[in-house]
Amino acid sequence: MAAMAAKPLARRSTAFGVSDVIIGTSPLGGIGTSISDAAAAAIVEKCVATGFRDFDTAPLYGLGKAEERLGEGLRRSGKAAQCRVWTKVGRLIRTTENVADPDDVEEANVPGKGIYLDSPKDARPVQDYSWNGAFLSYDDSVRRLGENIKICGLRCHDPETKLLESLAVCTGGSLEGLSALRQRHGTEVSIGLNDADVALRLLQAVQSGTQALRVDSVMLAGRWHLLDQTGAEVFRYCAEHSIAVHVAGVYASGLLAGGALYEYRKPSMAEKKRLQSWAALCAEHAVSLKAAALAFAFLPACVSKVAVGLAAAPLVAETVALLAEAKAVPLELWRDAVAKGLLPEGLVEGL
């Protein structure tokens, strides 16, 4: 993708806070680390008590477990009616005996192989990017989330092969199904994925089709943070077409938050060196690396929401503190980052 040669992204001119954060729920599915039902509910309850109202989940996360735990936590909070939930379509969760075609099972996410440690052992993720699959997935999510939980948006999740991409946008595909669900239930139509090139192609395919297929928002994960800005072209497209941008993976799968992995693998020497350069620059400006990462996510004006996953209840208060610190990150830090080659020139206005 030939990014950075185009018009700079408009820079955010308004403040951001708790209402601009979506709580990501992959930790509720046991991503990387198993979690108990009680601990999961405590995270959700603490988020709601602190003022967070937006949550992003998916059938993939723990193969249904995250949706179940999110729903329970929201009900326990006593404020479920005030909260908004985005979930996803593209994978139906079926028990082993209820899989119609074994070839449709996504083997990489079968329990014991995938990264979600709390997935039920007999659950299988079945890929389905059809109109009917979108409706079935919605009904399943409503059941798992439970009563009194409002689904405000549905994302077409990870159509990141040529086949799945074509199935998502074709006549009778999942995006048409999401459009029909919007008409029926008022749910926002969104796409959620990691691949910026696929995201851009999907948006362009929808734009060239009928107005009924319009996309309301895009969640792009891992392609807009201090170490990777390859989502810039998607952001430009969204800004030009009034599509809301939701950013996920802002801590580079944990590397920018003190973790050891990048993209769920060990970072290369070049990536470690870049990380060290960012840490040194942040120290010069008396800003924590994690706060800078959060501030960078909010830097473009087209970003309306930033998703943050929380694996423990104490991290809720830390996130509120990070938001306050992120709002105070000086513009000079970004300009110094450009001067040092850590960010490309012309990426965002004024840098």
Count the DSSP helices. 11
- Residue share in helix: 25-40%
Overall CATH architecture:
Alpha-Beta Barrel
Low-confidence stretches are: none
CATH class: Alpha Beta
Identify the CATH homologous superfamily: NADP-dependent oxidoreductase domain
Number of strands: 10
Number of domains: 1
InterPro entries: AKR, NAD(P)_OxRdtase_dom_sf, NADP_OxRdtase_dom
GO molecular function: oxidoreductase activity
Domain NADP-dependent oxidoreductase: 21-309
Protein name: NADP-dependent oxidoreductase domain-containing protein
List keywords for this structure.
single chain; eight-stranded parallel beta barrel; alpha/beta; 351 residues
Structure description:
The strands form two sheets. Strands 1-2-3-6-7-8-9-10 form an eight-stranded parallel barrel, surrounded by four helices. Strands 4-5 form a two-stranded antiparallel ribbon. The model has no long low-confidence stretch (mean pLDDT 96). The chain has eleven helices and ten strands. β7, α6 and β8 form a beta-alpha-beta unit. The chain is 37% helix and 15% strand. It has 351 residues and is α/β, with parallel strands linked by helices. The protein has a single domain, classed as NADP-dependent oxidoreductase domain (TIM Barrel, Alpha-Beta Barrel). It starts with 20 loop residues before the first strand and ends in a 12-residue tail after the last helix.
